[in-house]
Write a structure and sequence with these properties.
Mean pLDDT of chain A: 81
Protein name (chain B): Iron complex transport system permease protein
Shape of chain B: globular
Family (chain B): Belongs to the binding-protein-dependent transport system permease family. FecCD subfamily.
Number of helices of chain A: 14
Low-confidence stretches of chain A: 124-131
Helix content of chain B: over 70%
Strand content of chain B: under 5%
CATH topology of the largest domain in chain B: ABC transporter involved in vitamin B12 uptake, BtuC
Helix content of chain A: over 70%
GO cellular component, one term (chain B): plasma membrane
Mean pLDDT of chain B: 84
Oligomer: heterodimer
CATH class of the largest domain in chain B: Mainly Alpha
Distance between the termini of chain B: 27 Å
Largest interface: A-B, 52 and 55 residues
CATH architecture of chain A: Orthogonal Bundle
Number of domains of chain B: 2
Number of helices of chain B: 13
Keywords (chain B): Cell membrane, Membrane, Transmembrane, Transmembrane helix, Transport
CATH class of chain A: Mainly Alpha
Largest sheet of chain B: none
Radius of gyration of chain B: 21 Å
Structural class of chain A: mainly alpha
Strand content of chain A: under 5%
GO molecular function, one term (chain B): transmembrane transporter activity
CATH superfamily of chain A: ABC transporter involved in vitamin B12 uptake, BtuC
Distance between the termini of chain A: 25 Å
Strand order of the largest sheet of chain A: 1-2
CATH superfamily of the largest domain in chain B: ABC transporter involved in vitamin B12 uptake, BtuC
Low-confidence stretches of chain B: none
Shape of chain A: globular
């Protein structure tokens, strides 16, 4: 008995045992990583000290935990979850394990907007104030991401939204954005290039409560909605004609799921930059752990959160006082693990 | 369907293929002429011809022989190499998202290059190319070895694609860490990333030529086997194909072609991602034609983009990679929208 039906108000899902175990195990691991994230840093605390600092505003560690470590760790976990969920949806719709939010134009559009902002404003020498980096960059990222997504969506739409055509159009649009970004990186001052590179890699440096809110809201709304759409995603494994015969209305279902993927990626990118590898790898790791034919949405999100929270713990503490962008560490941790899973499956 | 009805159709097909091949060759010829005559200093056609056949040391002769000719030759070589490598890569992984750098070749080259800067203080294009080539070869061998482990008959398309992507991401992360810590490496890397065939000199052309020539021969030899593999591995096995060998030859060809190109010109591999999608509607799924079409189209596109980059930013230049994307991608998207895509 590896799967059982779950029925709620006339809707039913197949609940797979392995997938459930992966999700719950991942959540446990995430809790552990969050606790470590609270304890470790320039000032090391015991778990008791963390608890005391959390609930006592007069405690010396209160500010460190509540204003620095907690919002940053939460941002990391939420952003990782959102990107992974976005990736899982796209990989299911495109029926392609190499698909990621990049082909939706979201992350690449955001990157161009932010790099243009950083490089063209010449902020390396104090040209732009702290306000620009606090408010300007997330807003630029969100706008750029939306422009990118609308471009891809509009160009790929032709009497419906064919998964294969979406992928091809996405490749073309991503090529334009990516190369404009490369060009922008060559025209500016090398210091600006460095700052832009940190953001492009994905960084949680200095992230506070203002970054937690938007991603938390997006996940709270979109996770239940995407789970409702799981069935139509599962049906998508078959050809379009079969799907229609199965009674799933193809175009509305696909368009809504893509919209959800776009919003998740856009909000996550605005908060922490495009952490490219999480969106691609977390769904692939999750489907290998849960042994199901396509990325399981909930498990993917949990795996993405674990990967990002764990990577940020290392990014923050391993080379102190130097800080690596979290996006670099996610790839250094996640890639060998994904390779290990592929390798194990081959044997 | 009787045999008599089939024969004229086959005849038509062959004729159409020769027409397409001729058209692509003509386009490449036009691109070469433009690349030699247009630039910061416009050179009339007969002067250009004299510079190539009977140089007398005039200013035009020097510009053409020492700058334009090597640049054009490198553009043709890299374009051929990346177009061919892209078609092979998409065929072997059966994935429209596969680019020639998928096996870690591009990121392997980048990582080796920036490492040579910080560890050995390498500073010449010459050094970058050899380190880049070595890095590309190592990364690709690593990915292929990973894909081979434990399986019979070579890596499956999905394994190859995913293992390559993971290795690429890993290497790119290391490269990013290095360039963030070292300003000189960052400065070299950002220009390498944009891709260029300018200012490379003829010695670079001679360095990459043997690798690309070998890669092109292997690629063409690989096409019949790839056709069989496209029918599915079981069918290919039934047809007597040695699957592991076919995959190994394909990967070797892609590595030589892409490694030499990105080491010499920077991260232009995405050309190889777009071009096969442009040529597939012309060739259908037969790799014996798709591969040469993609090579010729890649070379013509790369040269044209390079010329446009010289014209629009006159008297400066725009990197060829950037122009390629700006010119190639809209064309590509229009094509995708116009017809039902040929699936892999």
């Amino acid at each position: 008995m590896t799967a059982f039906p779950l029925r709620v108000a006339g809707l039913s899902w197949q609940v797979r045992l392995r997938g459930t175990v992966v999700t719950l195990g991942g959540l446990l691991l995430l809790g552990l990583l969050m606790a470590l994230n609270m304890r470790l840093g320039d000032i090391e605390m015991s778990l008791g000290e963390v608890v005391r600092a959390t609930f006592d505003p007069a405690d010396a560690g209160h500010f460190v935990v509540m204003e620095l470590r907690l919002p940053r760790a939460l941002t990391g976990a939420l952003v990782g979850g959102a990107l992974a969920l976005s990736g899982a949806i796209i990989q299911s719709i495109a029926r392609n394990p190499l698909a990621s939010p990049e082909i939706l134009g979201v992350t690449t559009g955001a990157s161009v907007a932010v790099v243009a902002g950083v490089v063209l404003s010449g902020s390396a020498y104090g040209g732009a104030s702290g306000l620009f980096s606090a408010v300007g960059i997330p807003v630029l990222a969100l706008l750029g991401g939306m422009v990118g997504a609308v471009t891809v969506y509009a160009l790929a739409w032709r009497r419906g939204l064919d998964g294969y055509r979406l992928v091809l159009v996405g490749i073309g649009v991503a090529a334009v954005f990516t190369n404009v970004k490369y060009w922008l990186l060559t025209v500016g001052d090398v210091n600006d290039t460095g700052r832009a590179m940190v953001w492009i890699s994905g960084s949680l440096n200095g992230r506070g409560w203002e970054h937690v809110g938007p991603v938390a809201l997006a996940l709270a709304v979109l996770v239940p909605l995407t789970l409702l759409g799981t069935r139509s995603l599962a049906a998508l494994r078959f050809g379009d004609d079969t799907v229609t015969a199965l009674g799933v209305r193809m175009n509305p279902a696909r368009a809504l799921m893509i919209l959800a993927a776009v919003l998740l990626a856009a909000v996550a990118t605005a908060s922490a930059g495009p952490i490219a590898f999480v969106a691609l790898a977390a769904p692939q790791i999750a489907l290998r752990l849960a042994r199901c034919p396509q990325p399981p949405l909930l498990s993917s999100a949990v795996v993405g959160a674990v990967l990002t929270a764990g990577a940020d713990l290392i990014a923050r503490t391993a080379f102190s006082p130097l800080e690596l962008p979290v996006g670099i560490v996610t790839a250094v941790l996640g890639a060998p693990y994904l390779i290990h899973l592929i390798w194990r499956a081959r044997k | 369907m009787t045999a008599t009805a089939v024969a004229p159709r086959l005849h038509d097909l062959h004729r159409r293929r020769l027409v397409v091949l001729t058209a692509l060759l003509a386009a490449l010829g036009v691109a070469v002429v433009l690349s030699i005559t247009i630039g910061a200093k416009a050179v009339p056609l007969h002067d250009a011809w004299r510079a190539l056949t009977d140089p007398t040391g005039t200013e035009n002769d020097i510009v053409i022989r020492s700058l334009r000719l090597p640049r054009t030759a490198l553009g043709v070589l890299a374009g051929l190499a990346l177009g061919v490598a892209g078609a092979l890569m998409q065929g072997h992984t059966r994935n429209p998202l596969a680019d020639p750098g998928l096996l870690g070749v591009t990121q392997g080259a980048a990582f080796a290059m920036v490492s040579s800067i910080i560890l050995l203080g390498a500073q010449s294009v010459f050094a970058y190319i050899w380190f880049g080539l070595a890095g590309a070869l190592l990364a690709s061998v690593g990915v292929f070895a990973l894909g081979m482990v434990g399986g019979r008959g070579g890596p499956t398309p999905v394994t190859l694609a995913l293992a390559g992507t993971a290795v690429s991401a890993f290497l790119y992360a290391l490269t990013s860490a290095i360039v963030l810590l070292d300003e000189q490496a960052m400065d070299v890397f950002r220009f390498w990333q944009a891709g260029s065939i300018a200012a490379r000199g003829s010695d670079v052309v001679w360095q990459v030529l043997p690798f690309i020539a070998a890669g092109l021969v292997l690629a063409m030899a690989n096409t019949p086997g790839l056709n069989a593999l496209s029918l599915g591995e079981d069918v290919a096995r039934g047809l007597g194909q040695n699957i592991a060998l076919t995959r190994a030859v394909g990967v070797t060809a892609v590595t030589l072609l892409t490694g030499a190109s990105v080491a010499a010109c920077g991260a232009l591999a995405f050309v190889g991602l777009l071009v096969p999608h442009l040529t597939r509607p012309l060739s259908g799924t037969d790799h014996r034609w798709l591969v040469p079409y993609s090579g010729l189209a890649g070379a013509a596109l790369l040269l044209l983009a390079d010329v446009i980059g010289r014209v629009v930013a006159h008297p400066g230049e725009l990197e060829v990679g950037v122009v390629l994307a700006l010119v190639g991608a809209p064309f590509f998207v229009a094509l995708v929208r116009r017809r039902k895509p040929v699936r892999l």
